[in-house]
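User: Could you write out the 3D structure of this protein bound to zinc ion? I've included everything you need below.
Assistant: Certainly. Input first, then the structure.
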Amino acid sequence: MHEMSLAVALMEEINAIASQNQVERIQEVELHIGVLKQVVPVVMQEAFNAASIGTPAEGALLKQVAIDAQASCRSCKNIFTPEPDNFLCPVCGQGLIDILKGEEFILQSLTCES
Ligand SMILES: [Zn+2]
């Protein structure tokens, strides 16, 4: 369950931001998560709940925004949407691709009580 390690790392980031800005309570956390991360939203929510206990983000609303995958083929320069289990270029069938989007795990915003 790699969601838990993601949630723990996320909480470290949130804690650092909260202490820098002297925030005691966070209301909402918005995450942008690339689909290639294979994060299961329900599991992420549970991991977030567990990891946030005792932190300023405890009880905060977790908003998860999925970022679609995008890749470019090195052979024919085609831009396409890879599936998590199929990274072959649909035009030329080659597997030499560069991932452009879809591997994000970004803390996009925090909404705080003031
Ligand atoms: Zn191609």
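The helical segments are 2-20, 41-52.
User: Perfect, thank you.
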